[in-house]
Structures are given as C-alpha cells and as structure tokens.
Design a protein that fits this description.
- This protein has about 150 residues and is mainly alpha-helical.
- It is about 70% helix and about 0% strand.
- It has helices spanning about 1-25, 25-45, 55-60, 70-80, 80-90, 90-110, 120-140.
- It is globular, with a radius of gyration of 22 Å.
C-alpha cells in the first residue's frame, strides 16, 4: 500500500510541476521577447544614422514626442549606462523599471498559484496620462533642455 501511495504522490508532484511550467510559459515568453528586443537594440547602435527611422513628429514639427530618445535610452540601459539612459529618455527608464517590477510580481503570483490581477482604475490612467503629457510639454520648453534626447 505504501508503494501505491508513493506512486500517486509522484504522479501528483509531476502534474504540479507541469502545471507550474505551463503557467510560467506566458511570462517566460514575454521576457524572451523583451530580452530579444533589448539585445537587438543593444547590438545595433541607434546613435549611428541609418539604422532606425527618425521620429515622424520630430521630423515634421521639430517637437520631441514622449518616445523620442527611447531607442538610445534602451541602448544605454542594455549596456549598463544608467546616466545616459536617463538623459536620453527618463520616462522610458521609468517604464523599464515598472516592467521589471510588474513582471516579477506576475511570476511570484504564478509560482504561488494566485490569480494575477492588474486593475488600472481611471485615476491611475489619468495620472499616467498626465505624467506623459507633462513630460512631453516640459521637454519641449526652452527650460526643459535637460530632457532633450
């Protein structure tokens, strides 16, 4: 009887391991895509002309959008140069760090078999939108030259 119980427990553990691996597939896939994107941008230097297209808003109006300097920021971040990454696009660096925190929380909740809920309410979305808007306006003001990419 002990042998039968041991076999049942072994099958249950294997099934649980398969379930954990299955639940980790999506966060793992997302991490692989993001790591691949950072590896590409880290390899192909956006500071060299001709590798990436110019921002259409900047080309047409001369104004910096919230994403201007994002590729240069990602390149510097991939090389561990946080000061240059912040200079190129501070908002993007905040996004990288927010992604890392949210992804870590996601994986921890998956490992603990708890539901993953990301509920951004209206207030959160308005605050995020206001932050992006203020960042965009300030970086285009003459006094906001320190935010230019």
């Amino acid at each position: 009887m002990r042998r039968v119980n041991a076999e049942i427990q072994s099958v249950t553990r294997t099934g649980q391991d398969t379930g954990v691996l299955r639940r980790l597939a999506v966060p793992g896939g997302l991490l692989a895509v993001v790591a691949g994107a950072f590896a590409y941008v880290g390899t192909v230097d956006p500071n060299q002309p001709g590798h990436y297209p110019v921002c259409p808003l900047f080309r047409l109006t001369g104004l910096y959008c919230p994403g201007c300097g994002g590729l240069r920021s990602a390149h510097a971040f991939a090389h561990g140069d946080l000061a240059t990454a912040l200079t190129d696009n501070a908002l993007a660096v905040g996004g990288y760090l927010a992604f890392a925190v949210l992804w870590s929380v996601w994986v921890i909740r998956v490992l603990r078999a708890r539901p993953v809920r990301l509920e951004a309410g209206r207030v959160h979305l308005w605050v995020l939108g206001a932050l992006v808007l203020v960042f965009t306006v300030v970086r285009n003001l003459p006094s906001g030259g320190w935010l230019h990419p």
